[in-house]
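Would you mind writing out the residues of a protein together with its fold in token form for me to study?
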Amino acid sequence: MGDDTRIRVLNRNIRLLSYTLLALFLGVMSYMIYFQVFMAEEIEAKQGNVRYLAKTNKVLRGNIYDRDGNVLSFSERQEDGTQKRVYSGGTPFSHPLGYASAQYGVAELEKRMQEHLTNYSFDLTLSAKDFLGMLKNPDSYVGEEKYGDNVVTTLDSKLQRAAFDSLGSQYGVVVAMDPSTGEILAMVSTPTYNPSKIDTDYESYRNDTDGVMVNFANVGLYPPGSSFKVVTLASALQNMGNALGRTFEDKGKIEFADGTVLPNLNNRAYGTIGLEEALVVSSNVVFGTVAMEIGNAALRKTAESFGFNERFSFHDINLEASKFPELSKSQGGEIAQTGIGQGEVLASPLLMAMITSAIANDGVMMQPRLVSAVTSHDGSIRGAFDAKALKTPISKEDSDTIAAFMKEVVDQSSSANLKNLEKLSAAGKTGSAQYSELVYEEIVTGVHSWFIGFAPYEDPKIAIAVIVRGGGSGAGAAAEVAEDVISAYLGK
């Protein structure tokens, strides 16, 4: 091999090595740029990130207040430089507020408002000196004190505690709202947990078979039973000609070709009745018949206009999608079941409260709100969250009709709990929802107690949805809780 050949080979190898080194350099640079430019914010915000922990610990987490300025949770700086979250609102507020823990992260409102409570808008870059100090002792590294913003909720402490106390040892949910603004006045889910013990008892809470850490108000889905009949009624008003002039023959049950039966309670027959009386006596026959006549597509469209089959995510709360099925015309029995809130129909308590609010608010459904404002450490307003209309599922005329029928449900009832609600000028609808669940490989059946309503009828100030799981008749446990909560709010 001549000198020229050896030189060419050497030059080729040098070029190959140079290209390889250049490719490796560009790969490393691309990797670094990707994480610095595109992933930096996400990585920075991860709760396990050491820089994030150091930075958030440098900020004394902001307070959370109720609507009247009472402190529900706040943070205290400890001698070792860390901070401790104090839940002054106590156990009744555990589900809407959640928890903030250096060990187990954040949940519920503490998580959704994390950016504000930790003043996350500050500069996240660290000097080399700060970074070395943080690495040596990340938990206690503080430096110059900074304060997070405060969050003002829409919760009414008196009402929250009244709902919590009324549910007591029962398993259930209460959601109370201002129908004209969408403000959540109370949100209670039981059983619950103690947020003050989250660092010591987290594992036992997480593994609890009753789901004590789950806020069933917005993610729990249950058959709504007869409380759903207000939606079927709305669909009848929208889809049946002269619906208010129609009468139906109620013989106590509907018999289907496949041999199945849809009965009224105790097979009671009500004879020839219209829609108003059908709602008052909660006729399964009439509302099952209405569902079959208007058809699955029309009823599903109405249900979806009220928010079924849609998952909502707002800045301060999310809402799991309630379920309404798509059925074929041949499934007459299943269609009839959906008309009375059974079959494959599932609803969250929060959505049922929103539906009730829409009926009380001239057909306009307001966006549910758990936060009204964010304030700085010195009390100045950082931002306010105004009332927003979410949708208009029904007309004012139809909402007025349904509201009037719901008033008659209360006024004409012989139930002691509904008689007490009548004194509060409340309108409402009970529900006794049959359920069947698989528990430890066994089928468990029972009846959920539901009540939805609002008061006062003439000028609604509060709308409510209550479910007592396994509580039986809606005129019993749920109506009793609703009466306690509405009475507490109206001061009667």
